Backbone:
């Protein structure tokens, strides 16, 4: 219900919370979509944006993976109502988990798990694994609790009051528990806008556990 309540103002609320970085919501969505488009393979099959919300990331994913059929799932119907009709026309955006497929080339879970109570996280990742195609990949983006500015952003964000952040080791352990092989573990989003001219260095910092966010990518492909 909480994300139903903020669906109309979602972008504005995130923009306020991340204002300290000098960037707006679109920057972070574009960053993640670009990262995934460079991950390879080219993801021309089905892609699922799990916890898609109002579809901010979905839109950028479709732009970077134009050959993919993009589906979205969220528990918030009010958020789903705000997904761009052009995305709805090419794929399914639903709160009905039973309507989703079991052959996804890529499942993206961006900033969702910290809203899922810890005892439920493993079960959720197990269900997502079962929805992957045999060579499919599961990419989980999360806030990095080791970054003090990230913790400040979470404290300032009205819909993050229930958030329980996960360190990368926990996210990686959940994936390993359900038999997913680790493909990548990268830290992302290091520099604020006033240092944007140095951002070309960020891919070389992916090992440094100070990024504002991180991503863990696993695959069923043994
Ligand atoms: C912070 S928003 C992130 C939205 C989007 N992934 C993005 O990056 O812009 C978290 C989203 O996760 C959804 N969510 C929370 N718990 C969920 C669950 N158990 N299953 C699916 N979605 C969930 C919320 O409804 C909300 O839309």
Residues:
């Amino acid at each position: 219900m909480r994300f139903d309540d903020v669906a109309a103002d979602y972008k504005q609320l995130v923009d306020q919370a991340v204002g300290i970085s000098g960037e707006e919501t679109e920057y972070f969505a574009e960053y993640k979509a670009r990262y995934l488009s460079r991950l390879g393979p080219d993801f021309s099959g089905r892609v699922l944006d799990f916890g898609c919300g109002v579809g901010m990331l979905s839109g950028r994913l479709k732009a970077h993976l134009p050959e993919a059929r993009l589906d979205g799932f969220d528990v918030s119907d009010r958020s789903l109502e705000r997904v761009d009709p052009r995305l709805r026309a090419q794929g399914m955006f639903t709160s009905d988990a039973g309507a989703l497929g079991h052959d996804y080339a890529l499942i993206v879970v961006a900033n969702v798990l910290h809203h899922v109570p810890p005892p439920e996280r493993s079960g959720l990742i197990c269900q997502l694994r079962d929805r992957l195609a045999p060579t499919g990949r599961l990419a989980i983006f999360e806030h990095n609790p080791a970054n003090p500015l990230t913790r400040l952003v979470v404290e300032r964000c009205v819909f993050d009051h229930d958030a329980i952040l996960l360190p990368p080791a926990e996210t990686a352990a959940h994936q390993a528990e359900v038999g997913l092989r680790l493909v990548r573990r990268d830290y992302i989003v290091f520099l604020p806008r006033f240092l944007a001219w140095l951002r070309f260095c960020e891919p070389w910092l992916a090992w440094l556990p100070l990024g504002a966010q991180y991503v863990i990518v696993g695959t069923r492909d043994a």
